[in-house]
Amino acid sequence: MIELTKDGDLWVARINRPDKANSLTHAMLSELADIAEAARDARVFVLTGEGKVFSAGADLDEARAGLATSDVWERLSGNIAALPGLSIAALNGTLAGGAMGMALACDLRIAVPSAKFFYPVMKLGFLPQPSDPGRLRDLVGPARAKLMLMGGQKLLADEALRFGLIDRIVEPDALMDTVRDLAADTLAARPDIATGIKAMCQG
After folding, report:
1. Burial class of residue 51 (count of CB atoms within 10 Å of its CB; 0-12, 13-18, 19+)
2. Fewest C-beta atoms under 10 Å: which of 17, 46, 76, 195?
């Protein structure tokens, strides 16, 4: 249910469980975390999904059995955040719940116009994963982070763009072409220059 394709130094990990809104099991999250760790060898790492939803978050049955509070979410987002190359979340649709963490850990987030964004963790009686609120705050500011995490508000794509949660909105048929365009300069650059610029941007 996780598909990995490699085109030279461009790696694309695709969540392929559209019949379940790309909800994530522990096995899927572990596989994604392993892929993200191995992607240190890639120049550009892309996360996307199959169908009209990027991910609805945790598989409901596994969430009830403890997945909602598993440290595998933090392992995945930490591995993505640690990548020396460019990481891009190509959001083919709605992003919900714990799945938000992997997108927040990416350098760039590109979304289709129909995408919606929400993180109803408080309503479900859980704390978010440790790094997610800080990354969300850094993108949208503390008040808007509270709007989502405490106010339970769902953002539409245009509002998410205004807030800084995503960086661009593109039509579905142009999503991967846009990703490749964004990746082109990094793929063409000398590796030490590309990684050096990323480090400088992160401070």
Report:
1. middle
2. 195
| Inter-residue contact 37 to 179 (CB < 8 Å) | no
How many CB atoms sit inside 10 A of residue 190's CB? 8
Please report, for the chain, how many H helices and E strands are present, in that order: 9, 10
28-42, 49-63, 134-148, 175-189: segment of lowest average pLDDT: 49-63
Other CB atoms closer than 10 Å to residue 15's CB: what's the count? Answer: 25
Cα–Cα distance for residue pair 133/89, rounded to 1 Å: 18
Contacts of 147 (CB under 8 A, 6+ apart): 153
Q: Say which amino acid occupies 54.
A: F
Residue 199, C-beta contacts closer than 8 angstroms, at least 6 positions apart: 84
Q: Give every CB contact of residue 120 below 8 A, 6+ residues apart in sequence.
A: 96, 97, 152
Residues 64 and 2: their CA atoms lie apart, in Å, by: 22
Architecture of domain 2-202: Alpha-Beta Complex (3.90)
pTM (2 decimals)? 0.96
Tokens of 44: 């550009």
Q: How confident is the model at residue 121 (pLDDT cuts 50, 70, 90)?
A: confident
Q: Which helix or strand (DSSP H or E) is residue 175 part of?
A: helix 175-188
